[in-house]
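cache lookup: miss for this entity combination. No prior model stored, computing from scratch. Input as submitted by user K.M.:
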Amino acid sequence: MRTTTYIQAINEAIREEMRRDENVFLMGEDVGRYGGLFRVTRNLFEEFGEERVRDTPISEQGFMGMATGAALVGMRPIVELMYMDFFMVCADQIFNQAAKMHYMTGGLVNVPLVIRGQHGGGKRYGSQHSQCVESTFAQFPGIKVVAPCTPYDAKGLLVSAIRDNNPVAFIEHKMLYFTRGELPDVGEETIVPIGKADVKREGKDLTLVSFSYTLLEALAAAEELKDEYGIDIEVVDLRSIVPLDTETLYASVQKTGRLLAVHESQSNCGIGGEIVARIYEEAPHLLQAPARRLGMAPVSLPVSQKLEEEVLPWKKNIKAAVLEMLEPVAA
Amino acid sequence: MPISVEADVLSSKAETVIEAAVLSNEQLTHMYRDMYLIRRVEESLLELAESGKIGGAMHTAIGHEGSAIGMAAALQPDDYLTCTYRGHHHSLARGMDPKRAIAEVLGKADGFAQGKGGSMHFIDPELGLMGANGIVGAQVPHAAGMALASHIRNEGRIAITFFGEGALYQGVMHETFNISQRWSLPVIFYCENNRYSEMTPISRTSSVRDIYMFARAYGMNSIQIDGNDVEVVYQAISQAAERARAGKGPTFIEGITYRLAGHMAGDLETYRTPEEIEAQRAHEPLVVLTRRLLERGVKEKVLADIRTQVEAEVIEAVEFAQNSPWPDPAVAYTDVYAL
């Protein structure tokens, strides 16, 4: 084992899959010679050359459509959106085209396409460069959605995404890029299956489900709640949004009897609301108290650090939500 | 107030003149058969739509067939093709079985996509048909992406994409033109200029009179041709394909044509006069091709025999499609994700 950054883990996954399969290629703005705005694709241009690592003009509709076309005839493009917010510029190509082709043609074609990039707040990029996108992607059948938190999960899920025969939205987070974690040694294959959640912290009082950067805030909140109140939180990392692993989730709630879903995107129409609805429909008997969700306030993200902290559902807000749910027990 | 369309709109400014290929009578007779088949399939589909058997939107290409027939003869059978929702003609010209095509439009189990795609989503990867598209312009970057795939894999295949002039006002078109030209991709952009964006005439939508000039702005080889003359279309696409295969990059072809039927089945056609449509019939692809064949000595009896054979084939295809069962309801839940 060794430790690497989240960026390095993603870079390794792309590099190893490009070495393994010559149909894999990379497209996006500044991904080649510059190595990506966030340096995620650095040194790939040098190894694979301009045929397979393609700097595009700033034309999201054009290159997302071209990637879809190339995937329709058997290539495995990886497209970087510099900010995931830019999916809205090329939404037709993602949702009307890539996601629907397999179904609309009765299975005659498929689109093995990876759309990757970073989302989320915390770095003061403001309203148009900080949005969380997973719930929008999850609304459209035909596309899988993953949002890993650790370098290990990032590498393993990206390998799975590249090998998957469907479009996969691979959602990174700008706050995770320089976090570090363990990875198997170079040369050992790292694969994490899409659609499997992972218990990142065991506990008995409440199940807190989250993903992406918010999971780190949840883990920090769990440690403080343990130290300050003796509350023992189980933290489940969803890792995949579509398909959703309710089995792992319900197994945890069976143990704790309480469920809090936390994510950085808005509560309104978010995955947290979906998870809460599902457990009431499918396994209400597991709940000893009402299930809850916690997301960002229903505003566009402001730039000022103070204002960002106010509206994001991070450690302080997570602790407050947990204490509200457990107050009767704690008292 | 309906706007009249000039009957002969080839631009006097067209800088590249394509001289029509002279095809053999045998080739032209074969083209006549295919063109007549497409015409009769689409006329039959309109009858089925009028009798309420086809839901949703169905767009026929009656009057546009010259582009499809010229293309099928000019390209290799494995060259990639994408097109618009007005795409029955391209698919049938490339060899799609009319039985399965009509069954698909009717939403039946024997449709090529088991009734999940319908009229706007014709596809057959085995024939290089990589998808008609319901969103105006969306299929154009797909073809460029296929050309890119062919380039990376060094396949020697080219891609062609068909669209109407109404697509030229979508941003994705211009993004694709720019990248394709910059990367010298082996792709042909074929604009079937029927002079209406759905119901609105080109005079009210376009900032330029000659559509092919748009592509010139990207430094692209771009020409305007008579899209109703299969020998002209054949020559233009052949030359563009040769350029593409030689690594000389994309070509834009503006083929002037005219849509003789409505934008879709049920179009009220309040935007044009019967006189305008009648005037265009003198120069529609089937009339042009018939005249050419007779001028070159092919006997009317030969053409009449072809028409009789085609009629029988189309009647059989319509019967097959109508008798095809509905899809099993379980089919609604398959093919969401590929394995």
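stored under new cache key. Chain A has twelve helices and 14 strands.
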